[in-house]
DNA sequence: GTTGAGCGTT
């Protein structure tokens, strides 16, 4: 994995986690490590990937040894262009185990700090409006573009009074037939399109004989093979 | 071959 040869989190007892967003899908931990390591001591860099495909999800986690360096890296690397894309570095808000994190430092669960009834404000007063107002505001231009689109939409409307109607194909039903409750693995892959793939009260031989088969022997072998295939593919059906 | 809001692994 993207670790340094260790499985799982090395040690988060005294490490600060930074969340890096807006990174390209081609950016790897090895590419971020030297970048973040230059600003401080990076303990580990982890990039969550998809279990199915294995591609990066577009964000990475960088763990620093000291909060000072982490904070510095956040202010320095936040907004840096990597691989042609601007990345966003910020302290992790949640932990790997769903634990609360303050400034990248893992804190005790709410149950523990629950007893702390001391000057506790119902809402955080650290709220700031510095979230989308960074170098290059895509939202700003987007808003303008959207406004234009809206105006245009109003002028050159479809003509009919059915804006809510969104039918991709009125003549064609997207899902006329719902998947049957049966465990249909591949309805189009198997040769049998009927319901029961393996009727226990029927002889495959008879069916084959009934069908036009120039070489019954070959058919028999094929049928046998098919049956075996079914057994292998869906042994559940058998019993 | 693609995409773009967000919070993590043995």
From TrEMBL:
Primary location group: nucleus
Biological process (GO), any one: RNA splicing
Region described as Disordered: 103-239
GO molecular function annotations of the record: RNA binding
SUPFAM superfamilies reported for this sequence: RNA-binding domain, RBD
Source taxon at top rank: Eukaryota
Annotated keywords: mRNA processing, mRNA splicing, Nucleus, Phosphoprotein, RNA-binding
Low complexity compositional bias, start-end: 155-170, 180-189
Localization, UniProt: Nucleus
Keyword Phosphoprotein: yes
Listed Basic and acidic residues bias regions: 103-114, 140-153, 219-228
Cellular component, GO annotation: nucleus
Pfam families reported in the protein's UniProt record: RRM_1
Entry-linked InterPro entries: Nucleotide-bd_a/b_plait_sf, RBD_domain_sf, RNA-bind/splicing_reg, RRM_dom, RRM_euk-type
Keyword Phosphoprotein in annotation: yes
Gene3D superfamilies: 3.30.70.330
Domain RRM per the UniProt entry, residue ranges: 16-94
PANTHER family for the chain: GLYCINE-RICH RNA-BINDING PROTEIN RZ1A (PTHR48028), SC35-LIKE SPLICING FACTOR (PTHR48028:SF4)
Protein name: RRM domain-containing protein
Species of provenance: Escallonia rubra
Taxonomic classification: Eukaryota, Viridiplantae, Streptophyta, Embryophyta, Tracheophyta
């Amino acid at each position: 994995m993207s670790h340094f040869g260790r499985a799982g989190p090395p040690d988060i007892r005294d490490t600060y986690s930074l969340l890096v967003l807006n990174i390209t899908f081609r950016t790897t931990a090895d590419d971020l490590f030297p970048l973040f390591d230059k600003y401080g001591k990076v303990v580990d860099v982890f990039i969550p990937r998809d279990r199915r495909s294995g591609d990066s999800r577009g964000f990475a986690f960088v763990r620093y040894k000291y909060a000072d360096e982490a904070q510095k890296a956040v202010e320095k690397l936040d907004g840096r262009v990597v691989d042609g894309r601007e990345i966003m570095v910020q302290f992790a808000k949640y932990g790997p185990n769903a634990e609360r994190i303050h400034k990248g430092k893992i804190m005790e669960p709410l149950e523990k700090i629950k007893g702390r009834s001391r000057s506790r404000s119902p809402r955080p007063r650290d709220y700031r409006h510095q979230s989308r107002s960074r170098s290059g505001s895509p939202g700003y231009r987007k808003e303008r573009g959207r406004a234009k689109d809206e105006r245009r939409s109003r002028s050159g409307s479809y003509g009919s009074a059915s804006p809510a109607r969104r039918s991709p194909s009125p003549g064609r039903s997207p899902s006329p037939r719902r998947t049957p409750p049966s465990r249909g693995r591949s309805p189009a892959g198997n040769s049998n399109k009927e319901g029961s793939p393996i009727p226990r009260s029927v002889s495959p031989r008879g069916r084959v004989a009934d069908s036009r088969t120039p070489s019954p022997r070959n058919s028999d072998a094929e049928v046998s093979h098919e049956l075996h295939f079914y057994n292998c593919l869906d042994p559940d059906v058998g019993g």
